[in-house]
Design brief:
The structure holds two protein chains of two kinds.
Chain A (H helix, E strand, L loop, with lengths): L3 H9 L1 H32 L10 E8 L6 H14 L3 E7 L11 E4 L10 E6 L1 E2 L1 H5 L3 E4 L8 E2 H10 L8 E5 H7 L9 E4 L3 E9 L15 E3 L2 E2 L7 E6 L4 H15 L3 E8 H8 L1 H35 L1 H9 L4 H38 L8 H25 L11
Chain B lengths: L1 H14 L1 H28 L11 E5 L20 E2 H10 L4 E12 L9 E8 L3 H5 L3 E4 L4 H6 L3 E5 H8 L8 E4 L2 E9 L23 E4 H6 L4 E2 L3 E2 L14 E9 L3 H20 L11 E4 H8 L4 H31 L1 H9 L4 H35 L13 H26 L4 H7 L1
Parallel strand pairs in B: 4-9, 6-8
Antiparallel strand pairs in B: 1-12, 1-13, 2-12, 3-4, 3-10, 3-12, 5-8, 6-9, 7-8, 11-12
Helix pairs in contact in B: 1-12, 2-10, 2-12, 2-13, 10-13, 11-14, 12-13
Classes of the chains: A alpha+beta, B alpha+beta.
Chain lengths: ~400, ~425
């Protein structure tokens, strides 16, 4: 294929050709970054929570007035909830992975008197957390009844500085253990919170995600042996078979109202719902990005079709002359395809540079990682393919121009 | 001549309907996407109290110790005021009006048996709040300074809450049970919800939250009512006394200052107050850290627009730019193809300017059609945003200003896109073209 005639034609339409190149470049750059953003969102939405997601339902109660015996009431509630048909486990937790409604966090330190905490962890407290959430222990054990401390006692102890009322142990996730004690066995290690309160690791769970602030490390969580009551703002969580969830939720709400009608149900949902709500924004953003990509590629493809059609129309005479001089239909077809390939290549090269530029901007302003190299060749292939497909129609029309056109005057 | 050019443009566009449709579609999509996001940005950064916002200011002090460090993404502790500072500013009475406030959530226990108890958001504040922000009263009135002083158990209800509790009856003078106590209703306001809720704490959903009741701040502090918002302590405080602690910030404070000298005087007063507190040993940082923000300045400082929205705006504008490039290329090809026709007109005496105007009108026509399409697409886009769960979703509506803005942007974009092709086209050499015809 002789490139010179193509280049000399393009030189005569320098301006239009450059516009097309620029359009392809911008499209390439935006599409590469948009696909990357989508993959980031999908990755976020896909993060493991570590809990038995499809088996949990959650109920949060609002209490009217102060209940002097919140502890006894919580025990009554839990006992009643366990009686409901289909309930495998019932517990109480202050928070759940990936859900709105705040989180309780603290800084963990490796030394008692550290200036800055080593990691900021989110802590889970409540009752019966490991079996209810379905956490998988990979080392050590769950808390024993004697290890638990009541929240009000712990808070009072914190005020007086009395270490007796404070918890002594904790369960950490594997990711957190690897972060704090890389290469060492985490069981028996000690970390410190607050003003140097020591907590010894007695168990390691495979995974447990934090409710929010995922940028602090989605798996940096601990479980503390602190008993909470429903009046402290902790939620009842029930574990059941996936198909029983709706029925169990209804039965549980009815049961709780029956025990004490003077309470308001603030939240009742399956865990699936909570997680879906938490990632709703990411899902919407991914959808918008897909829309932008489709729209951009369509507009660019249509632009190529439009411009190629014009050029074919403009060059009918010269195509006829070439055909009369012995060029085959294939030659004409290839001519237009090569022309498009050249323009697309130029656009893609420029687009790669631009893509990196946009990525740098996003890294600066939106805490995004660097664009992985693989996006560039894939983006290039997609744009080449779209260019060739878009130009095929006009090129076929050009190839169909009969040689006799050469002898007609326009 | 304008009518003639319009006719020429119409004929030319009709000659290649697919290409015309393509250009209209491209500009419509680009404009639609851009205007959707610009409208969202516009409503998010809009003036919440037009007519009053220029006189409203919020003072900020810096009572933090020198070695205090802000924790990661935690709230800035000096964004709010402590109780002693707020009370000092309130008592000094240096502004035309001043009010301290904090958000609160209370459990309403209706007397009617058929309505179950429910939670409702409201605000604990001081008497000047109502005249300062121009809260419209339907019945009754605000409480007075005397009620603030004694921590009276009075409440102002919003219309919707009053209706829910008392139906169409006049609620003024009736009692309402909120949390543990009964309160006497002294006034009912219209459902009033500035957007954004500029006076709320940083933790509030400022586009969807609104206040349904108002209680005297002193009453809330006396009874240690729950506060919705950030409590930032920089020294150890008991849960019992943290509300009145000099090392816990949780209050928002707004003042009304009518004239520039008043603003300058208030600014100086804040610095003097800080210097005095520093002399007393309470403050450690330089007194010049005290700031006075205007309402719009404060909103800009708070930066309420989420990153996602900004990213979407950039995407939309990038898309519009690609669409414009597309149109420039297509128009250029289209105009240059008409070199023959243009040359004939030139040979018959048309000036370059005439050709330029003629082609400009043709691109403007595409812009008008694209703008109309863009308007429809933007409405669709805004509708889809209103379906989202975001805080700002509800307010994503186009106003008249944005409506005309859309059309103007569409026409400007297409005329701009047509400028270069038209300029190139009107510079073709007629003699050369005529010879080859």
């Amino acid at each position: 294929m002789e490139l010179r005639p193509i280049l000399s034609t393009l030189r005569r339409h320098k301006f239009t050709a450059w516009l097309l190149v620029l359009e392809i470049a911008l499209t390439c750059a935006i599409v590469c970054n948009a696909v990357f953003l989508i993959s980031q969102r999908l990755h976020r939405m896909d993060l493991p929570s570590g809990i038995a997601e499809r088996e949990l339902v959650q109920i949060q109660l609002g209490h009217i007035g102060k209940n002097p015996d919140a502890k006894a009431q919580t025990e009554t509630d839990l006992a009643a909830l366990r009686q409901i048909a289909g309930v495998k486990q019932a517990g109480l937790t202050e928070e759940l992975p990936f859900s709105f409604g705040g989180s309780s966090n603290s800084g963990l330190m490796l030394e008692p008197r550290q200036q800055q905490p080593t990691v900021t962890v989110s802590q889970y407290m409540g009752q019966n957390i490991l079996p209810t959430l379905g956490l998988r222990l990979v080392a050590g054990r769950d808390f024993q009844p004697g290890e638990y401390v009541d929240l009000d006692i712990a808070l009072a102890a914190l005020k007086t500085g009395d270490t007796k009322g404070l918890p002594q142990s904790m369960i950490v996730t594997r990711a957190l253990a690897d972060r704090l004690w890389p290469g060492k066995a985490p069981l028996g290690q000690t970390a410190y919170v607050g003003k140097g309160i020591p907590l010894r690791v007695i168990g390691v769970v495979e995974s447990l995600a934090r409710p929010n602030m995922l940028n602090k490390g989605p798996q940096y969580t601990v479980v503390w042996p602190i008993h909470m009551t429903s009046a402290d703002g902790a939620d009842y969580v029930l574990r059941t078979a996936p198909q029983d969830r709706a029925a169990v939720l209804e039965a549980a709400v009815a049961k709780l109202k029956q025990i004490d009608p003077n309470r308001v149900v603030l939240v009742k949902r399956t865990y699936d719902q909570a997680r879906r709500e938490f990632f709703a924004n990411d899902r919407a953003m991914a959808g918008i990005l897909v829309g932008v990509i489709v729209a951009l590629l369509t507009v660019t493809a249509l632009g190529i079709v439009g411009l190629a059609s014009f050029w074919v129309g403009q060059r009918r005479r010269s195509i006829g002359v070439r055909r009369a001089l012995g060029a085959t239909r294939g030659d004409i077809l290839r001519y237009f395809q090569t022309e498009n390939f050249l323009l697309a290549t130029l656009g893609i090269v420029l687009g790669m540079v631009l893509a990196y530029g946009i990525n740098l901007f996003l890294m600066l302003h939106y805490e995004l990682p660097r664009l992985p190299g693989i996006y560039l060749p894939v983006g290039a292939l997609v744009l080449w393919a779209i260019g060739q497909l878009a130009v095929l129609g006009p090129a076929l029309r050009a190839a169909a121009v009969p040689p006799v056109v050469a002898t007609r005057s326009v | 001549m304008f009518g003639y050019y319009l006719d020429l443009a119409w004929r030319s566009l009709k000659r290649s309907p697919i290409l015309t449709g393509l250009m209209v579609l491209a500009i419509g999509l680009g404009i639609g996407a851009s205007m959707t996001m610009l409208t969202v940005l516009h409503v998010m950064t809009d003036d919440p109290l037009p007519g009053r916002s220029a006189q409203l200011y919020t003072p900020h002090l810096d009572p933090l110790p020198l070695d205090h460090k802000r924790r990661g993404d935690g709230p800035d502790a000096s964004d709010n005021l402590t109780w002693p500072d707020a009370m000092a500013l309130l008592k000094a009475h240096r502004a035309t009006r001043q009010a301290a406030m904090a958000g609160g959530s209370m459990l309403v226990r209706p007397a009617r048996a058929d309505v179950r108890p429910f939670d409702v958001d409201g605000r604990y504040t001081t008497a000047d709040f109502f005249p300062m922000f121009g809260v419209p009263f339907l019945r009754g009135s605000a409480w007075g300074a005397a009620d603030d002083a004694v921590g009276a158990r009075v409440v102002v209800l919003a219309e919707s809450l009053s209706r829910k509790l008392f139906g169409a009856d006049d609620a003024v003078g009736r009692m309402v049970r909120l949390g543990e106590h009964d309160y006497r209703v002294v006034g009912v306001t219209r459902d009033w919800q500035p957007s954004p809720l500029f006076y709320a704490d940083a933790s509030a959903k400022r586009y969807s939250d609104g206040d349904r009741f108002f209680l005297p701040l002193s009453t809330a502090v006396d009874q240690k009512l729950d506060v919705n918002g950030n409590f930032s302590s920089w020294e150890k405080n008991d849960a019992d006394s943290r509300m009145v602690s000099p090392t816990t910030s949780w209050l928002q404070f707004w003042v009304q200052l009518d004239t520039p000298p008043q603003v300058a005087a208030y600014r100086q007063y804040l610095v003097d107050y800080s210097a005095q507190q520093k002399a007393l040993g309470r403050f450690q940082r330089p007194p010049a850290n005290a700031k006075l923000y205007g309402l719009m300045g404060w909103l800009a400082h708070e930066d309420l627009v989420p990153n996602d929205v900004r990213l979407q705006l950039w995407l939309a504008l990038g898309f519009l730019f690609v669409c414009m490039l597309n149109i420039v290329a297509l128009l250029l090809a289209k105009f240059l193809r008409r070199s023959g026709e243009i040359s004939v007109r030139r040979a018959l005496g048309a000036r370059r300017r005439d050709i330029f105007v003629q082609l400009g009108i043709e691109s403007a026509l595409i812009g008008v059609a694209g703008g109309a399409l863009g308007l429809a697409i933007a409405q669709l886009g805004l509708w889809s945003i209103r379906q989202r769960p975001d805080d700002y979703a509800r307010i994503a509506q186009m106003d008249v200003q944005m409506l005309f803005g859309t059309l103007a942007l569409a026409i400007a974009a297409s005329v701009l896109a047509g400028l270069l092709p038209a300029w190139r086209a009107c510079r073709v050499a007629p003699a050369l073209q005529l010879k080859t015809m």
